[in-house]
Amino acid sequence: MKTYLVTGGAGFIGSNFVLYMLKKYNDVKIVNLDKLTYAGNLENLKDVQENPKHIFVQGDICDKELVTELFDKYDIDYVVNFAAESHVDRSIKEPEIFASTNVLGTVNLLNCAKNAWERENGWKDGVRYHQVSTDEVYGSLGDTGYFMETTPLDPHSPYSSSKAGADFMVKAYFDTFNMPVTITRCSNNYGPYHFPEKLIPLLINNCLNHKDLPVYGDGLNIRDWLYVEDHCKAIDMVVRDGRVGEVYNVGGHNERTNIQIVKTVIKHIHDNVDETVTEDLIKYVEDRKGHDRRYGIAPDKIKEELGWYPETTFEVGIVKTIEWYLENRQWMENVTSGEYQKYYEKMYTV
Ligand code: NAD
Ligand code: DAU
């Protein structure tokens, strides 16, 4: 039995990872530490509510006493740190919480793991600290080229700068203490349980409610979209088999301009759900400050070393995603009305 401390496991990718791991493995136990900020939603975890291999703890990754207690109580083998403030637009408005959670929270986790795992002559057997990072730490690309693991970090937003700060702290624990760490840097995820402040779920929700579809700037910024389950697979592989001290880029060679994404969502909903949904809903709005133009990942290293590749094409993934939202309208309704926070009382005693 391997015990994971998964942080941020009530958020979008974290909850997908918890569900993926508990479905795939019988010999995995997950301690899920999540502060339940506005982005944490226990409704995402209702399928594992009764599963004794899932232990939910509401708390802050910055809380040294609590994290130390979790290491003492649960004999943690792996830490997978998803917990973060994750939205670029919010980071432009309130950068402090990004520095606090993303940088200081990561340092606290590293330190508590070090205290629990360090031995006189090295490290406890088989342990690993894994940091879930982002391609945004590399900055922005021009029309050609890709981010490689060797690309120098050049973050621009308060969000990406805080994620880069966290990555440097993880590297410092490897360089200074030889702590067994790995980092993955992934491109834009999409799929079930994605909070509707982010582009794709926002578009789906607004289409279904006949609301304007806000497109920042000229709509020609490019993101490299990856289906969330493919990201979960990549993290699982890196935690188990990735080389200690290494960074692995994760991406799908699925580059799209934002306006292409908008038109794809409109077309699917128009053709399959509601023919009154048309491109008339598109509304060009003021650009995001410091808006990165293009992200593109070369996932060659993870493919060559671990055999990972993005299995879900964008064409398949986007239809699966829209269908999920159609089948789970109550989930969206609960999120947009604030009802989801009632799950805090209903589902777990925390
Ligand atoms: P999210 O905002 O959906 O979820 C974040 C989760 O972290 C929430 O459940 C929240 O309650 C929790 N959290 C926030 N602050 C906390 C704290 N101080 N202590 C404990 N829990 C806290 O984010 P996401 O989109 O699922 O992203 C997860 C991770 O993956 C982040 O580290 C993000 O930087 C990274 N990432 C995201 C993407 C993407 O496309 N969404 C791509 C690459 C990397
Ligand atoms: O690249 C990985 C990153 O992807 C993650 O590290 C972040 O946590 C995640 O939030 C995401 O960041 P982005 O800023 O790329 O995602 P977002 O969905 O906010 O925006 C995607 C693109 O769409 C971006 O170019 C801005 C644009 N956009 C976004 C919104 C919300 C719009 O044009 N209109 C919108 O309303």
From TrEMBL:
SUPFAM superfamilies registered for this protein in UniProt: NAD(P)-binding Rossmann-fold domains
Annotated organism of origin: Clostridium yunnanense
Keyword Glycosyltransferase in record: no
Entry's Gene Ontology molecular function annotations: dTDP-glucose 4,6-dehydratase activity
Cofactors, names only: NAD(+)
UniProt keyword annotations, A-Z: Lyase, NAD
Entry similarity comment: Belongs to the NAD(P)-dependent epimerase/dehydratase family. dTDP-glucose dehydratase subfamily.
Domain of life: Bacteria
Stretches of the chain forming a coiled coil according to its record: none
Name of the protein this chain belongs to: dTDP-glucose 4,6-dehydratase
Catalytic activity annotation: dTDP-alpha-D-glucose = dTDP-4-dehydro-6-deoxy-alpha-D-glucose + H2O
CDD domains: dTDP_GD_SDR_e
All residue ranges annotated as the NAD(P)-binding domain in the record: 5-319
NCBIfam families linked to this entry: dTDP_gluc_dehyt
Pfam families tied to this protein: GDP_Man_Dehyd
EC top class, as a word: lyase
Signal peptide: none
Keyword Isomerase: no
EC numbers: 4.2.1.46
